[in-house]
Amino acid sequence: MTLKVACIAALAATMSLAGSTAFAAASDYVFDPVNAEMKKGDDVTVAIRLTNRITGKPVTDVVIIRSRVDMAPDGMADMESQITPLPSNEPGVYAFKTDLPMAGHYQLSVAAKVQGEAETVIGKVAITAKK
């Protein structure tokens, strides 16, 4: 009888540990520009890379739920451009088509859902448009 109780207790302890598996937090991911400087103009392709900070590996199969390009770094957050997602052939790279009509500093803000993560991953990527 004591052996049976011990086995049940061991099984219960194992199951409680299995249920508390830790997942990464949204802060364990970072968006970086593929190219932080580009020429100003219309239909510019801006690409960003999502990396897991813990593993250093690119994060694939992300669903971008929100994106925005504006000139917030130059104090002109209301200077917003349309943004359209583009396909990418590189794992962990997410590309967008947008207009960067004037030279200056732009910010690409992104909200993404990573598979297996409860939290939304949010990033702000700085981009500089040159003449």
Rg over C-alpha atoms, rounded to the nearest angstrom: 21 Å
Which bin fits the share of residues in helices? 10-25%
SSE class:
mainly beta
Largest sheet: 5 strands, mixed
What's the mean pLDDT score?
A: 87
Oligomeric state? single chain
Q: List how many beta strands DSSP finds.
A: 9
**Distance N terminus to C terminus?**
82 Å
| Outline type | globular
The order of strands across the largest sheet is 2-9-8-4-5
Low-confidence stretches: 9-22
Portion in beta strands: over 45%
Number of helices: 1
Q: Which sequence of SSEs, written as H and E, runs from N to C? A: HEEEEEEEEE
Question: Notable features of this structure?
Answer:
131 residues; mainly beta; 5-stranded mixed β-sheet; 4-stranded antiparallel β-sheet; 1 helix; 9 strands; 13% helix
How does this model look, in words?
The protein is mainly beta and 131 residues long. Helices cover 13% and strands 51% of the residues. It is built from one helix and nine strands, in the order αβββββββββ. The strands form two sheets. Strands 2-9-8-4-5 form a five-stranded mixed β-sheet, with no helix packed on it. It has a four-stranded antiparallel β-sheet with strand order 1-3-7-6, with no helix packed on it.
What would you say about this model in short?
This protein is mainly β and 131 residues long.
SSE diagram, text form:
Layout: H1 2-18, E1 29-33, E2 37-39, E3 41-52, E4 63-71, E5 76-81, E6 83-86, E7 93-100, E8 104-113, E9 121-130
Parallel strand pairs: 2-9
Antiparallel strand pairs: 1-3, 3-7, 4-5, 4-8, 6-7, 8-9
